[in-house]
Amino acid sequence: MRLLKRGRLLLLLKLTVVLGSLWMLSLLNNLKIGWDPAYILKYSWLEYKDAGPEKVCNCSAILRGEREALEEAKLLTITKDFRKSVHIPDEYYINATQDCTKFKLSRKYLTIPLSQEEEDFPLAYSIVAHHKVQNFERLLRAIYAPQNIYCIHVDNKSDASVFSAIKAITSCFPNTFMVSKAVNVVYAAWPRVQADLNCMADLYNSSTKWKYFINLCGQDFPLKTNLEIVRILSSMRGGNSLESEKLPEGKKWRVTNAHHIVNGKIQGTGKAKDPPPFNLPILAGNAYIVVNRGYVRSVLEDKRIQALIEWSKDTYSPDEFLWATIQRIPGVPGSTWPNSKFDMTDINAIARLVKWQWHEGSEGSLEAVYPECHGNHVRSICVYGAGDLQWLLEQHHLFANKFDTDSDPIAVYCLEKYLRQKALAEMH
Ligand SMILES: *[C@@H]1O[C@H](CO)[C@@H](O)[C@H](O)[C@H]1NC(C)=O
Ligand SMILES: *[C@@H]1O[C@H](CO)[C@@H](O)[C@H](O)[C@H]1NC(C)=O
Ligand SMILES: *[C@@H]1O[C@H](CO)[C@@H](O)[C@H](O)[C@H]1NC(C)=O
Ligand SMILES: *[C@@H]1O[C@H](CO)[C@@H](O)[C@H](O)[C@H]1NC(C)=O
């Protein structure tokens, strides 16, 4: 009986190869046929090989940092026609998602878990986006797996076409959704944190019993496959990984003076703030974290953290201290003690790799933290170029910021292609 079933399954799978139809595979998956490595197919049609005008680039040479290939890539990226030809407009997404099956197939979304190990370790993502839909969609496609869950916060004041396109994309997947409450994000002010908090609450309340929470913005990109992320996170044994260090003297004003939002900008009120509740030590970090489910539960339920959140609402850039401070509160799952021996820098944490202009330099220099940016800078942050990829892939971080298909489409193309190939190869 079982043999017969398997024979028929094999026949079906062969048919699937012939049709190249993902739909059939997801149907098989829905029939709850168990995972069996004997039936692993060559999922070669899921590689991104027939992609657009970028295909003239030699990504393997680029990933090895070969100068000639990088120079060719650079010449292409500075060509206006090329940049225009790789741009995907919002309207494309709004139209193409009217037929979700076709959209997922043509964009090569993975619709089945690639391994039991990944299926048993679901992740929750909060993604904050406000423009550049193409970057968002390339990111979603790179991290998408059917067992994970994705909450998307689109800034309440984004263009209507951005909102419509992202909403249309999320409506194609059962496990991606728009946040229940979208806020107006104001740079360096409380609403940026509220956006993540709203997604945290929605994710925590979902039926998926995810194990880790990761927050991203639309211009991040993964440096690891989902399987690699799962393995790294399971090896952390419930720990969290985020920047959390001593608050520099020069930043103390941010939490000792009250602020408010005036005409969409944050301003000081001129009033001093009370010290933090329970005299919690305030630590410095950044907006991007990798934390376990218990950390998120504490954020939503712990009375000390509720008080800290209320206290933080009129501070400057609470995203750069709130998560770091919670990470050192006793009793928070995966936290570490407040003692400075447990301080963690952004370089040692795995959450996010960002190249700040003033930390760039050559190896051996005492000031330098990383090599120079091969792309361009936006507000002192490196927007990676193809020439940064080799170095990026050597780092332990799960994600890097910033990428932009409008400034270097080849960097994104070669990275996504590499990750997909790797994910498919990991199945064998
Ligand atoms: C791409 O670069 C690799 C590594 O240098 C080289 O082996 C390969 O032949 C190149 N492929 C093409 C199509 O030029
Ligand atoms: C809209 O999508 C349909 C089907 O997905 C496609 O056939 C059609 O060409 C698209 N139209 C435009 C204007 O892109
Ligand atoms: C969202 O924007 C609309 C107007 O575009 C405004 O009326 C509403 O108050 C905003 N909501 C929030 C939560 O900021
Ligand atoms: C949690 O989800 C349920 C429906 O599944 C809903 O009724 C409830 O209001 C949600 N709770 C919160 C806190 O969002």
* Tally of helical runs: 18
Radius of gyration: 22 Å
Q: What best-fitting shape do the alpha-carbon axes yield?
A: globular
Largest sheet: 5 strands, mixed
- What number is the mean pLDDT? 91
Show unreliable segments. 1-28, 30-34, 36-40
Overall helicity: 25-40%
Describe the structure.
The protein is of the alpha/beta class and 428 residues long. Among the domains are: 41-86 and 350-428, no CATH class; 245-342, no CATH class. The protein is 38% helix and 14% strand. A 5-stranded mixed β-sheet has the order 3-2-1-4-10, sandwiched between helices. Strands 5-14-11 form a 3-stranded mixed β-sheet. Strands 6-9 form a two-stranded antiparallel sheet. A hairpin with a 2-residue loop joins strand 7 and strand 8 (265-272). Helix 6 packs parallel to helix 10 (160-170). The two termini are 27 Å apart. Residues 1-28, 30-34 and 36-40 have low confidence and may be disordered. The site of one 2-acetamido-2-deoxy-beta-D-glucopyranose (NAG) has 4 residues, from helix 3.
Which helices and strands occur, and which strands form pairs?
Layout: H1 2-19, H2 22-30, H3 59-63, H4 67-77, H5 80-86, H6 90-96, H7 100-106, H8 116-119, E1 123-129, H9 133-143, E2 149-154, H10 160-170, E3 176-178, H11 191-204, E4 212-217, E5 220-222, H12 226-235, E6 245-246, H13 253-256, E7 257-262, E8 265-272, E9 283-284, E10 290-292, H14 293-301, H15 303-312, H16 322-326, E11 352-354, E12 376-378, E13 381-383, H17 389-392, E14 399-401, H18 409-425
Parallel strand pairs: 1-2, 1-4, 2-3, 11-14
Antiparallel strand pairs: 4-10, 5-14, 6-9, 7-8, 12-13
